[in-house]
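Lab notes, practical 5.
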Amino acid sequence: YKDASLADLNELMLCIEKSLKETQLEDRLELDRRIGQLLGYSTQDIEFYIQHISNRHLKTKI
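Output from the prediction step:
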């Protein structure tokens, strides 16, 4: 993170805090998507993670 701007690090911390408290799946996934971007993950990796979490959530609903 040494090359990250302070604003990005602050945004990352805020997103993590909000994600941990969020109860709505869609809102949490959007926060997780932003966290992945701030951490430098590729769009493909982020979407794979989002799909995995969504599928897991659906299985617990059945």
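Observations recorded by the TA: Residues 6-61 form one domain. Helices lie at 6-21, 25-39, 43-61.
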